[in-house]
Amino acid sequence: MSLLKPFNKLPDLNTANILLVENEEQFQQSLANTLVEEMAVTVKVRLAKSLPLPMENDESRPRIDLVVFIINLTSDKSFESAKASLKYLDPGYFLGKVCFMVTNARHASVCTGRLDAVRKLAVSLHCPLLFAEDQTPEGATSSARRLLTILKVASGLVPNTTALYLSNLTRCTIPLDIDQPSFD
Amino acid sequence: MDDSAKRLLQRLVRRIPAQMLKVTLDKWDRLTAKQRKSVDFTQSKWAISQELVALCEESERTVKHIAELEMIYVTENPNQGMWHTFQLVDPEDDAHAVDLMLFKEQFKSHLRELKRNMSVKIKKHTDESVWIRIAWGDGLSRPNHLKATYVVHYLQTPYVFVSTLSSKHKPLLLQALTLSTRHQQIKDANLSGRKLTALRDLLMRQYQHVFPTKYPSPLAERNQSISNLHIEKEQAKASANRHRMAGEAFGNGILPALQSAVFKLETKFKDPSNETMTARDEPFRCGVKFSSTNLLESFRHCASSGIASTPVTPLLSSIPLKGRNYFVITDNVPTACSQMCQTQD
Predict the structure, then answer these.
(1) What is the complex's ipTM, to 2 decimals?
(2) How close B88 comes to chain A (CA, Å)?
């Protein structure tokens, strides 16, 4: 089983490594371009379509500090692919080193149950759920900024905080009326 | 100027968009420069058409001249109306020797033999294609210029594109074409669409092909498409493979703008969870239509992004390969373990 493990490699100095997993491979590219522009810290971005990651890159791959699953709510395949990829992550990642990012939440063709399903998944794994707008560069910039905040903590570059502490504040919670029918 | 000419002119003026009208009239060259200057093209179309009718009556233009105008417009703007393709098969020995003059003579004479009282205009376009406009009439009535058939043929190629042809006149036209191009048979090529340029480019393979090679990227430096060193794709090889296979199936660069493809399925229903439907013996008939502003690019993107599985299924890759967009799909003769579908004419 080729699990991705959070602590089996040594960290680099003043570097943060983030893995963006997206089935469509679209938004991750613009996010990556914005993320690497960060000056204070060296951000290295790895892009993948799904997990497991190929074995050939195991040696050259640095320690991944944060894994972000980008789910497009208009596509069922996107959600299924993200769910299938979760199996290939070591459980150690779920202590604050995994984040879900959702795009197209306001799109007209989104089926209502899917956002709830993503929410429930994020709640069960104690992960934050971020909403992103992927059509404009401003959307990419603002999502990148939010990811950077979490990334800096997850890679240990913020003193007196760890990913687990932060996840207690950022993790997704389920609203009490999630099982009530919505007003659409 | 008689009634039919007036009506044709009025219909034309309505059909041609305002910006193109002046240009087309200049090309037509049947009105003097003074007459053309006197028309005010900022008026409403109805007013313009009244003026033009008056001018044409002044210069005694007949319906033949107006038909010329229509032909000029259609030749310059071929991407309208519905074009159907036919393919000439079994060339005779002298099929290669057919040149424009011979073709014109033979076509006109064969058509006249079959049917009297039609109006035929043949013109050679700048890109070496032969355009034919036929207004059909029968023994009793005059040729109907309002529903003219247009035929486009590139000499020495086996393809003919036809628009606005009624089933009554179809056998006549096809016979005349076959005889005048010295072939033995003509058949439906199962390719139709609105954009003539797209159909032509698809059949004449005028797009960038990708040929399968054993060593796809001999120079590693060529593939440094990601600019930043800090960004790295984990599954780059798989992604490059998908790109390559999509390119091999559909081609690189800009693809001909085919807009629809229709698959008529006559296969047995296959769904393990639905017993009642699967138990039937007769084929389940249904039609699947794909439409898009550029269908081939959409398919190529589906294959390269992983939405469609690679290697690309022959159902989709045979659209550019065979140059057709209408398929009838039936099952193989069923054997115990055969599950494959096969395309048939």
Answers:
(1) 0.83
(2) 44
Angle, to 10 degrees, between the axis of helix B3-15 and the axis of helix B63-76? 20
Residues A42/A47/A52/A54 CA torsion (nearest 10 deg): -90
Task: Classify strands B326-331 and B341-344 as parallel, antiparallel or unpaired.
Answer: antiparallel
Measured in angstroms, the CA of A43 and the nearest CA of chain B are apart by 7
| pTM: predicted TM-score of the whole model, two decimal places | 0.82
pLDDT at position B343 is 37
Report whether B2 contacts B63 (CB < 8 A). yes
- CA pair distance B148, B162, nearest whole angstrom: 11
Q: Residue B233: which of A24, A47, A77 has the nearest Cβ?
A: A47
Among left, alpha and beta (phi > 0; psi -120 to 50; other), residue B10 is alpha
Per-residue pLDDT at A154 exceeds 60: yes
Low-confidence ranges of chain B (pLDDT < 50): 333-345
Which of A32, A35, A59, A61 shows the shortest CA–CA distance to A47?
A32
Q: How many residue pairs from chains A and B have C-beta atoms closer than 8 A?
A: 45
Amino acid at B323: G
pLDDT attached to residue B336: 31
- Measured between CA atoms, the residue of chain B closest to residue A17 is B230
Ranges A37-46, A115-124, A162-171, B325-334: which has the least confidence: B325-334
